[in-house]
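Design a sequence for this backbone.
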């Protein structure tokens, strides 16, 4: 946020000379460049926190960020798939190596970071249980790693229905055929080399391509699969 949206615009101004009008001009410049409301709001938050620290250190007497209001962000409209769209998506997913991941997300409501982080050790097909205990962490400059979910509610055990069990059994057959048996390769949806699949790559190279192939609107995001889960519970689609 600092390198992209703050320093290029006000980084040359000395701390003691920075004033509210400088910040108004900064926000205006970002708006003219079509920087989203969300990114402008985050930039404002980062700068405000930094200047609050400067006030505490007595480097400046007041924080000029207090004179301008951060941009308001609109909550995105919640979108979910209709049943005919679910059927098209499931159909294209069947022909893709990692398509089962998208189907599983729609059935269980698992989040974008939880699917790539799922391991076979967290799947118990005999007792029809799946435990969510790790997510993929891909912060800039950090090598891909797994970490616990942010909240206690996100660390959960789910009962698997017949559709989810069928999807995971089919997935197990695929990894065995690829010579990546669960005992040797833990990720349920690994990269072709058997390594952990990156969440960002999964989103763009798997989900986006399958969504487009199914003729679904580009406004539909992976998070929409969590809302689609309700439709599948009412009238499930064969995986």
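Sequence:
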């Amino acid at each position: 946020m600092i390198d992209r949206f703050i320093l290029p615009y006000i980084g040359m101004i000395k701390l003691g000379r920075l004033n509210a009008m400088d910040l108004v001009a900064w926000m205006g410049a970002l708006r003219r460049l079509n920087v989203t409301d969300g990114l402008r709001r985050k930039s404002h938050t980062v700068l405000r926190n930094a200047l609050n620290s400067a006030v505490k250190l007595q480097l400046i007497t007041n924080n000029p960020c207090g004179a301008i209001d951060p941009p308001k962000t609109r909550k995105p409209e919640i979108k979910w798939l209709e049943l005919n769209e679910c059927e098209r998506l499931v159909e294209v997913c069947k022909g893709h190596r990692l398509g089962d991941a998208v189907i599983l997300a729609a059935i269980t409501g698992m989040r974008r970071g939880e699917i790539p982080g799922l391991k076979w050790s967290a799947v118990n097909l005999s007792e029809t249980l799946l435990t969510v205990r790790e997510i993929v962490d891909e912060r800039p400059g950090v090598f891909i790693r797994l970490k616990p979910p942010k909240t206690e509610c996100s660390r959960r055990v789910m009962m698997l229905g017949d559709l989810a069990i069928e999807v995971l059994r089919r997935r197990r057959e695929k990894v065995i055929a690829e010579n990546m048996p669960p005992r040797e390769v833990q990720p349920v949806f690994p990269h072709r080399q058997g390594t952990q699949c990156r969440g960002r790559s999964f989103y763009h190279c798997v989900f986006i391509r399958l969504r487009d192939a199914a003729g679904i609107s580009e406004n539909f995001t992976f998070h929409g699969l969590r809302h689609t889960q309700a439709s599948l519970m009412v009238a499930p689609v064969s995986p």
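The domain at 2-67 is CATH 1.10.150.130 (DNA polymerase; domain 1).
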